[in-house]
Design brief:
There is one protein chain. About 45% of the residues lie in helices and about 25% in strands. It is built from 26 helices and 33 strands. Strands 13-12-11-16-15-14 form a six-stranded antiparallel beta sheet, with helices on both faces. Helix 1 runs antiparallel to helix 3 (about 185-195) and helix 23 (about 750-755) crosses helix 24 (about 760-775). The chain is elongated. The protein starts with 11 loop residues before the first helix and ends in a 5-residue tail after the last strand.
């Protein structure tokens, strides 16, 4: 039997309390869920907005860096041919900087980091740390980013508002780099114009996590931060959104993108607390209202509805802000009228944006574009030329630019210019090429109009004797007379529509002529003598006179006359003067020229250096000769004799050359004196002083080397034989006195060489030579006359003294040990002795007798002394 379940009845108060509690729980649950959802939506909205900004700023940064790379690549191609001089190269770099507001300077830097040329001369001589640039490895077309620096340029190290630069380098050769000083403020100003930075900031980092520049002044460029390192780890994925603690512990919302074609990351980070600040204030208010709901039951429900509606309004506001930001991004892109294309080379598919189709009168993505379809749309006359140019440029990694005609939807032809670059390779094969397409039909039409106008005036210009050219503001030849074209070896039709650069020697010469246009604008006319180039490559000097073709107009009429002959005459005269000055200035001797009044009219640097004159040579010119000599006399070892010689020579008309003079510091000079006379009248004097110190030292050293054995330091065979001849002559003349001749040979010396090597053998010879010298008198002479053969000449010594010396030497050798690098070595010697006799004796006979005595000592068992007399 079922029993009815009886629930306890609740009092109205309890029911009300339960109802209130239940309602409160429901309200709190709904509030918690709603606030969390709104919070997430706000965060997602702001992250999407930040991602949109990141796309916009990454595109702007990539465009800026691509422009910088194109500028540097253009300079790299031109600089090796333009390095005609420091000033010319600096001017060329300045010219390249005019249309680049995002650059502070352009510099040419050597492999050691020294700035060789710069658009700002104050940078010259400074050194950059090229080893700190990143990436360290890469091809010649890879931009390298250096550490950020303070100041407005490399020479400026002071920090100020709006200062700071980012060095960007491109190799020219392995030991030469082009370095651009990029102005980060140019990019940061663009950021501030499109985004409010009150809630966060924008950072640009290298792929390894180092900060390059930031909108936050508290961040130090070049440092690594934990969050930045995290971004660097994901740099290869292209883009992303992160939410978490920043390097300083602050919770942040980050949207980042890798900069296409460059090893850079762009990060937009918003402080989570600031993003949710307004929302949290609203939640706080809602909580206060819920506190009042404890007293009133229905009020909390109403307030919750109102607050939820308010929260939904915040969500709509965030979405509207995102939509507005995206609209600004689209408007920015729409303002750029160039079409963008992306070519997948392996598949042949080409992705084009809406502007590309719009240019040709089609709707967005009206049809798929392939390589074959694109070639079909080219004008038949352009197909082969354009395809050949594009195909040849795919593997170059430096990009290409080509103009051609495309067929529009109505069948007409549109002139466009495509600029592209290969951004991805598989080995040496290109994978992906990106670029832009520009409508140049207006430019082509203008050029055609210039050509048409030029034809109308040709007849008039052909009758003018001088060469006449009419040029556009862009320096394009609009009209040319027959005489003007003939002057440069062209036909008129070959020059019409061409740039004046065709007549200049090179592009650097073309740029150097630009200031003439500035003077023309200021003064209304300009006249120059300038070198220009004929068709055959020869150079002619032209007198150029320019004025406005019409008052208030922009076309310029140039009248040109060939003044090459006059210019060559002036140049020859100047060259002759310059050569003479260079010869005098670089003459290896000290030159001094005085006039007939004994005033100095010329002196060179070498003269000042020789005699320690501190002033420049021009400071000596005009000085009295005697005063100058008085200033330098103390530098000579015999000052009075030096002055006396100069006075004696100065009064004569005969040249005196090669007189040696000694200086107090040991140097040796040669003095040449050459009077300058005409018709027997002295017009002046030429003094030349040569520093021959090194020559004299070399002569002495050569004399020493020619007379000394290089191994032992003893006189060599030639000197010993000369001394022997002199001794024989002395004996023959005076017929008195005795002189002994000794020949010495080391026993079994070959064994030393074979057992220990020639190095040790040389040491044995040196030791024996020293021992021999130690036993001889100062009047005796020892010499090395063969490999291990030595000789000694003992003037005033008879047979007994010679034998005594020989035995003492032999015994010393037996009892001593000759120290070598292989230890001590014992060795003996055989000695032959003879006397120099008179009459009938000679040096050769004495040598033969000494050799005979030596041979006897060897035959008798070595290590002994033998004597042979004349007649034996």
């Amino acid at each position: 039997m079922l029993r009815r379940l009886h629930l306890p009845r609740l009092s109205p108060d309890r029911a009300y309390i339960l109802f209130v509690l239940f309602l409160l729980a429901v309200v709190l649950g709904v509030l918690t869920y709603t606030t969390q959802r709104i919070q997430r939506e706000i965060i997602q909205g702001r992250l999407q907005q930040a991602a949109a900004h990141a796309r916009l700023f990454e595109d702007r940064l990539a465009q800026t860096l691509t422009t910088v790379q194109l500028i540097l690549e253009t300079l790299r191609d031109q600089v090796p041919r333009r390095a005609e001089g420091q000033d010319h190269l600096d001017d060329y770099l300045q010219g390249a900087l005019r249309n680049a507001p995002f650059l502070r300077s352009l510099s040419l830097v050597g492999g050691d980091g020294q700035i060789l040329a710069s658009s700002d001369s104050r940078n010259l001589g400074l050194k950059l740390s090229l080893e700190t640039f990143s990436p360290r490895e890469g091809g010649s077309d890879v931009l390298r980013f250096g550490p950020p620096q303070e100041g407005r340029d490399f020479h400026d190290k002071e920090q100020s508002q709006g200062s700071g630069l980012l060095p960007v380098a491109l190799p020219v050769t392995p030991s030469l780099f082009l370095v651009a000083a990029l102005n980060p403020g140019y990019f940061l100003n663009h950021i501030e114009a499109h985004m409010s930075l009150g809630e966060g900031g924008v950072d640009v980092l290298l792929a390894d996590g180092r900060l390059l520049f930031s909108t936050q002044e508290t961040l130090v460029p070049g440092q690594l931060h934990p969050q930045d390192l995290g971004l660097a780890d994901f740099s290869e994925t292209g883009a992303g959104i992160l939410e978490g603690p920043r390097h300083d512990g602050v919770q942040a919302l980050s949207a980042w993108r890798s900069v296409r074609a460059f090893p850079l990351l762009l990060s937009i980070h918003l402080e989570r607390e600031k993003v949710l600040e307004e929302w949290e204030r609203e939640v706080h208010k809602l909580t206060l209202f819920l506190g009042g709901g404890l007293l009133l039951v229905l009020v909390p429900t109403t307030l919750l509805f109102l607050r939820e509606k308010r929260a939904l309004g915040l969500q709509a506001q965030a979405a509207a802000a995102l939509a507005a930001s995206e609209a600004r991004y689209r408007l920015t892109f729409a303002a750029v009228r160039d079409g963008i294309w992306d070519w997948d080379v392996p598949s042949g598919r080409i992705n084009c944006d809406a502007h590309w189709f719009e240019m040709l009168g089609y709707g967005d993505q009206a049809f798929p574009i392939s390589q074959e379809k694109w070639l079909e749309m080219l004008h038949p006359e352009d197909q082969q030329r354009v395809w050949q140019h594009v195909r040849d440029s795919l593997g170059a990694e430096r990009g290409f630019s080509v103009a051609y005609r495309l067929r529009r939807v109505d069948g007409s032809w549109l002139w466009v210019e495509s600029r592209g670059k290969t951004v991805s390779f598989a080995g040496a094969e290109p994978l992906r090429v990106v670029g832009i397409q520009t409508d140049i039909s207006a430019r082509v039409a203008a050029e055609e109009a210039v050509v048409a106008a030029a034809r109308h005036r040709t007849a008039l210009l052909d009758h003018i004797a001088a060469g006449v050219f009419v040029a556009s503001p862009e320096r394009i030849i609009m009209e040319v007379s027959a005489r003007g074209a003939e002057m440069f070896g062209y036909r008129p039709e070959e020059l019409l529509g061409q740039s004046f650069s065709r007549l200049h020697v090179d592009l650097l010469s073309y740029e150097r002529f630009r200031p003439a246009y500035d003077r023309l604008r200021r003064e209304g006319w300009v006249q120059e003598e300038y070198p220009l180039r004929r068709k055959d490559g020869s150079q002619r000097w032209i007198s150029v006179y320019g004025t406005w073709l019409e008052p208030g107009g922009e076309a310029v009429i140039w009248t040109m006359l060939d003044v090459t002959h006059q210019h060559q005459m002036r140049e020859a005269l100047q060259a002759s003067r310059t050569r003479l000055e260079a010869i005098i200035d670089h003459f290896p001797g000290g030159l001094l020229v005085e006039d007939d009044q004994r005033h100095i009219v010329l002196v060179n640097h070498t003269f000042c250096r020789l005699f320690g004159l501190e002033e420049h040579p021009e400071g000596v010119v005009g000085e009295n000769f005697s005063n100058c000599i008085a200033r330098i006399r103390s530098r000579f070892s015999h000052p009075e004799h030096f002055e006396w010689q100069l006075r004696e020579l100065g009064e004569g008309l005969e040249a005196v050359l090669g007189r040696e003079l000694g200086l107090a510091d040991g140097r040796v000079l040669e003095r040449d004196y050459q009077p300058i006379a005409a018709d027997g009248r002295l017009l002046g004097r030429l003094w030349v002083f040569w520093d021959v110190t090194t020559q004299k030292l070399q002569e002495r050293e050569l004399q020493r080397l020619a007379s000394v054995d290089s191994l032992t330091g003893l006189p060599n065979r030639r000197i010993f034989l000369e001394r022997l001849d002199l001794e024989m002559a002395r004996i023959e003349r005076y017929e008195q006195g005795e002189t002994a001749l000794l020949m010495l040979d080391l026993d079994h010396f070959k064994r030393v060489n074979d057992q220990y090597g020639h190095g040790v053998g040389d040491q044995v010879l040196q030791g024996f030579g020293q021992l021999l010298l130690s036993l001889l008198r100062r009047t005796d002479l020892a010499g090395r006359v063969g490999g291990e053969e030595f000789a000694a000449l003992l003037p005033g010594t008879g047979v007994g003294g010679a034998v005594e010396l020989a035995e003492r030497l032999r015994q010393e050798l037996v009892e001593s040990v000759l120290e070598t690098s292989k230890g001590g070595i014992h060795i003996t010697a055989s000695i032959g002795i003879t006397l120099l006799a008179h009459p009938g004796d000679s040096a050769s006979m004495a040598l033969a007798r000494a050799d005979q005595a030596l041979y006897r000592a060897k035959e008798a068992g070595r290590n002994r002394t033998e004597v042979v007399f004349l007649g034996e």
